[in-house]
Amino acid sequence: MEDIYINKASFGDDFSWGVSTAAFQTEGACSEDGKGASIWDEFTHRKGKILKGESADTACEFYLNYQRDIDLVKQMNIPNFRFSIAWSRILPQGDGEVNQAGIDHYNNVINYCLQQGVEPWLTIYHWDLPLALEKQGGWTNRNIIEWFINYVTICANSFGDRVKHWMVMNEPAVFTGAGYFLGVHAPGRTGVKNFLPAVLYASLCLAAGGKKLKEILPGSVVGTTFSCSAVEPYTSKQRDINATKRADAIINRLFIEPVMGLGYPMADVPVLEGIKKLMQPGDADALKFDFDFIGLQCYTREMVRFSLFTPYIYATLVKAEKRNVPLTQMGWEVYPPSIYQVLKRFSAYAPAKAFYITENGVAFEDQLIDGEVNDTQRVDYLQKHIGQVLKAKNEGVNVKGYFVWTLTDNFEWAEGYHPRFGLVHVDFKTQQRTIKAAGKWYANFLAGNE
Ligand code: NOJ
């Protein structure tokens, strides 16, 4: 891989730089001001689901003290801040009565961003489904389309006068795959019988949510975010190449292709044909939506080999630790060209207009020593990935922004607090913040000094 020289100027003035977070991973205050429980509140209190039995009841206390962290965004010269709304703060039961305190809270966060000169970018759904809805089937109940559209409508009407950039959903392949097939994320359900309806109804909500936002806020910029990775066969054996094709269909194609009007990748993954039985007249059209932008979230590369023991896709990921490659705290390979490859590849979907990298970042074993975190590895990771974004841009990909995951160390789902992804270190005992060397580097870069 060639080293690519980057500075802010080489991206042009209209490139959007930012940092991303999510409600459940940062807010804490899990039952404050009338908030209802979410599936993650419930899941984190189940035995054996989260590493070391940790919960996000307090997390980074972003709910109670959002000013402190938005001040850090400003201090690091970051112009755009992406965060999510917790559905069960707005609608404690998911549907029905609105909790005005929840709306007031997000109004305060948005207003504080704007006062600080930081542009708020909103994700409507980042995995924290109201528990009351899960009790009625959650993402496997077709009624979720109505529930979701009601929630989107309230968000658009409440915040749309000040928020220009919207993302309907975060990584649907992950919340359906990990939450409804593998059971390692909330709500912990497993199997094809849960996964297929969750996939279909999440896709329908995605498109319907985009349409609703545009209808209420015609001047807004509406996108959504997808997880994606470069996916390669572990060997050149034909059966590994075929397995890679199947894994790729699930990892990269499952959600974007229906939105683009291409349907589900059933030819490569026949089990998806089960979705046909769930479809109703009009669904094929209802799955399509012309988003203003697609957010891509890329962290690593996957290597795939054939496996007889993995039903349905007969493919397995070869762990990075077995491949003698540089590793992150998540056990993921550090492989910067992946972000270039996904940008090139997704931009080949003809209807897609524009792309943002809405997440990229890394967890390393950070050490706080004498009040400093000297995370040079993270600086290197960010520089190389941003370099690969520039390469794609220079080759004509319409990539219009880059957001680091994430602002502060936070609650990394089933992994708890162990992986530290932040530009800012958090001591979870004291809530003390320390800007890491990577945060200082990003601040300098964004000031145009690098
Ligand atoms: C993607 C998810 O959107 C985010 O919630 C998560 O923390 C990061 N990836 C890192 O795993």
From TrEMBL:
<feature type="binding site">
    <location>
        <position position="405"/>
    </location>
    <ligand>
        <name>substrate</name>
    </ligand>
</feature>
<comment type="similarity">
    <text>Belongs to the glycosyl hydrolase 1 family.</text>
</comment>
<dbReference type="GO" id="GO:0030245">
    <property type="term" value="P:cellulose catabolic process"/>
</dbReference>
<keyword id="KW-0136">Cellulose degradation</keyword>
<feature type="binding site">
    <location>
        <position position="25"/>
    </location>
    <ligand>
        <name>substrate</name>
    </ligand>
</feature>
<feature type="active site" description="Nucleophile">
    <location>
        <position position="359"/>
    </location>
</feature>
<feature type="binding site">
    <location>
        <position position="299"/>
    </location>
    <ligand>
        <name>substrate</name>
    </ligand>
</feature>
<keyword id="KW-0326">Glycosidase</keyword>
<dbReference type="InterPro" id="IPR017853">
    <property type="entry name" value="GH"/>
</dbReference>
<dbReference type="GO" id="GO:0008422">
    <property type="term" value="F:beta-glucosidase activity"/>
</dbReference>
<feature type="binding site">
    <location>
        <position position="170"/>
    </location>
    <ligand>
        <name>substrate</name>
    </ligand>
</feature>
<dbReference type="InterPro" id="IPR018120">
    <property type="entry name" value="Glyco_hydro_1_AS"/>
</dbReference>
<dbReference type="Pfam" id="PF00232">
    <property type="entry name" value="Glyco_hydro_1"/>
</dbReference>
<keyword id="KW-0119">Carbohydrate metabolism</keyword>
<keyword id="KW-0624">Polysaccharide degradation</keyword>
<feature type="binding site">
    <location>
        <begin position="412"/>
        <end position="413"/>
    </location>
    <ligand>
        <name>substrate</name>
    </ligand>
</feature>
<keyword id="KW-0378">Hydrolase</keyword>
<feature type="binding site">
    <location>
        <position position="126"/>
    </location>
    <ligand>
        <name>substrate</name>
    </ligand>
</feature>
<feature type="active site" description="Proton donor">
    <location>
        <position position="171"/>
    </location>
</feature>
<dbReference type="InterPro" id="IPR033132">
    <property type="entry name" value="GH_1_N_CS"/>
</dbReference>
<protein>
    <recommendedName>
        <fullName>Beta-glucosidase</fullName>
        <ecNumber>3.2.1.21</ecNumber>
    </recommendedName>
</protein>
<dbReference type="InterPro" id="IPR017736">
    <property type="entry name" value="Glyco_hydro_1_beta-glucosidase"/>
</dbReference>
<dbReference type="InterPro" id="IPR001360">
    <property type="entry name" value="Glyco_hydro_1"/>
</dbReference>
